[in-house]
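Exercise 3.2. Students should predict the tertiary structure of the chain below and write it as structure tokens, then compare their answer with the key that follows.

Predict this chain's 3D structure.
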Amino acid sequence: MNRVVRQLSSSLAFLRPRSEPQLSGCSLGGGLGGWMGARGIRVAVRNGNLEQALGLMERKMRESGMERLIKQRVGYHLKNSEKRVLARKNLQHRLRSQDFSRKLRAIIVKKIRGL
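Answer key:
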């Protein structure tokens, strides 16, 4: 967990504001200087439990794919298993996209022929 936080803070240091950062206990990682726009990750720190908030932030980063984006930006080595998972996801996305375009094309052709 600490490794991810260190990697995140070092790779996104250029986005950090010049003034003193405010950690009021309401969010972490929400305002990344427009890097993620409206898709920022916000984590509430409850009862001063920072470890729990960092764990939640790490899980949200993993689920959203931000961790993978950071690793790509840093030039992190991908294991073969990670490459297989990414290749499978890309293949599924491509097949869904092709299937959708095929269906859309069929609908448009039917409408044109019906006129």
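Discussion points: The longest helix spans residues 80-114. The chain has four helices and no strands.
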